[in-house]
Amino acid sequence: MKGLWLNIMQALGQKNARPKAPIYNEQDRAGLRRASRFNAQLMDFLRPQVKAGITTLELDRIAYEYTVEHGHTPACLGYKGYPNTICTSVNEVVCHGIPNKTPLREGDIVNLDLTTIVDGWHGDSSETFLIEPVAEEARKLVQVAFDCLYVGIDAIHPYGKLTEIGRAIERYARVRGYSVVQEYQGHGLGREFHQEPGVPHFVPKLNPSQVVIEPGMCFTVEPMINTGTWRTMLDKHDKWTVRTMDLSLSAQFEHTILVTESGPEILTATEHGPKQGFQF
Ligand code: MF3
Ligand code: CO
Ligand code: CO
Asked: pLDDT of 163-177, one tens digit each?
């Protein structure tokens, strides 16, 4: 009996000991804004080059050079042993696709996920690009994934619950016949790449997040939406590439969000990319 109580108390203690999401002051926020703005510029720089015929490895090299020429640091390169600057996830690849020498082809959809460190602060965003012409099935999926990002952002209210983000995204995707990836989620970021709070894009049945959204928090929203099953599998050989279990298509968009006293601020908004309401 004693042992059991001890275990329960230890479990509770560990739960309470979970590091809390940092609350950023004005000076921190300026650092976060600069890092995300650069990340968005990098996305805009890559945008016109994402075309049939280019390889994802070429896009990776372009991203590396642009980043270091501007005096900044690619966050993914070497992160937990990741081998490249960007993640390039084509068609059934959900996330963490490693750039390779296969040229993009008409009909592909490809997500470019970029993370940069500027003066010690991280900015993280991704977009899925259509290599036109694409099948209607792919266009519709990309549209729903894009809209899910904004449905999630619109659910961010200062002093609201973090679970509302996942609730809104899951509902939006599900009624349209799409599934939401569960094993990978949004995350707090700042001086660290991945930190509290975790941001699920669905409502976990077990232990849903009790986190209250507070002004000064910074985290990503990055729903991965599938045409088929939500289940995923990790590539046995490279241990990075995540694919849908049924090899159905997957699409994702990501922004870094700063919660301010007046609501969510999209730090990674681009100048030339699709804006909320865009039709693919
Ligand atoms: N940018 C990804 C995210 O959105 C993380 C990539 S980690 C890497 O969180 F190691 F694969 F680069
Ligand atoms: Co990312
Ligand atoms: Co992220």
From this structure: 999 999 999 999 999
